[in-house]
Specification:
The structure is a single chain. By secondary structure, the chain is an alpha+beta fold. It has one domain. The chain is built from 3 helices and 2 strands. The longest helix is centred in the C-terminal third of the chain and has 10 residues. The chain is globular, with a radius of gyration of 14 Å. The mean pLDDT is about 90. InterPro entries: LMF, LMF1/2_C. This is LMF1 factor. It holds the Pfam family LMF1_C.
Length: about 100
């Protein structure tokens, strides 16, 4: 069965020195095939799928303690590791200081 609502995990970063500041601008990392921007054309890669995007769907049903790999992925994105960034559709901090 398929759920009627889809909960999504969204990864964001900010260049703000104080992330809790209400004026901090948070920028989203886009995935290659995971639903996100409604103006983006849906990807079509049948019969395959992007494994990270697929795992993110299941991670939304659980806690981060049950999906410790998300913490490691976030750390790699914060460090702007090319291997991790290659799994993403966009890097909002490309050419800038890391978040």
């Amino acid at each position: 069965s398929i759920t009627k609502e889809r909960t999504e995990v969204i990864l964001q970063g900010t260049s703000s020195l104080d992330p809790s500041d209400p004026s901090a601008v948070w920028e989203e990392y886009d995935f290659k095939c995971k639903p996100g921007d409604l103006k983006r054309r849906p990807c079509l890669i049948t019969p395959y799928h992007y494994r990270l995007d697929w795992l993110m769907w299941f991670a939304a049903f659980q806690t981060y303690e049950q999906n410790e790999w998300i913490i490691h992925l976030a750390g790699k994105l914060l460090a702007q590791e090319e291997e991790a960034l290659s799994l993403m559709a966009t890097n909002p901090f490309a050419g800038r200081a890391p978040p």
